[in-house]
Amino acid sequence: QVQPVTSGGGSVQAGGSLRLSCAAPGFTSNNCDMVWYRQAAGKQREWVSSLDTAGVTMYVESVKGRFTVSIDEAKDTTYLQMNSLEPEDTGMYFCKPTGVSDGCFFRWGQGTQVTVSS
């Protein structure tokens, strides 16, 4: 199984923005949904956002209006645009395709760290 490659994390001050990228080879051609998660230190991994094959996006309540998911199908890459970042957004961010096709089974990737200072 391959793993997605996540990048774009960094350290920003509250109110700043970051754009995360998630490259997962074949996930569009295999009709996979894409799910973003995050995990703060000492806490469980939580669901952040989903993008399904119909283009429908969903977000956890705490990021609605601030985070936006988009996709570049030609690159098999999704993006998580994060604006108006808050210290509570600090954590390791992961992406993982999901779906019924065998091509949707990916290992967990290494994630990318986002740190927001107040």
Could you please describe the fold and organization of this structure?
This protein has strands at 5-7, 10-13, 18-23, 33-39, 46-51, 57-59, 67-72, 77-82, 91-98, 112-117. By secondary structure, the chain is mainly beta. The strands form two sheets. A six-stranded mixed beta sheet has the order 2-10-9-4-5-6, with no helix packed on it. Strands 1-3-8-7 form a four-stranded antiparallel beta sheet, with no helix packed on it.
Q: What structural keywords apply?
A:
six-stranded mixed β-sheet; about 45% strand; about 120 residues; mainly beta; globular; about 0% helix; four-stranded antiparallel β-sheet
- Rounded Rg: 14 Å
Content of β-strand = over 45%
**How do the strands line up in the largest sheet?**
2-10-9-4-5-6
Which stretches are poorly predicted, pLDDT < 50 over at least 5 residues? none
Q: Profile the largest sheet.
A: 6 strands, mixed
Q: How many distinct beta strands?
A: 10
* Overall average pLDDT: 96
Order of helices and strands: EEEEEEEEEE
Helix coverage percent: under 10%
Number of helices: 0
- Shape by Cα distribution: globular
What is the CA-CA span between the terminal residues?
39 Å
Helix/strand-derived class?
A: mainly beta
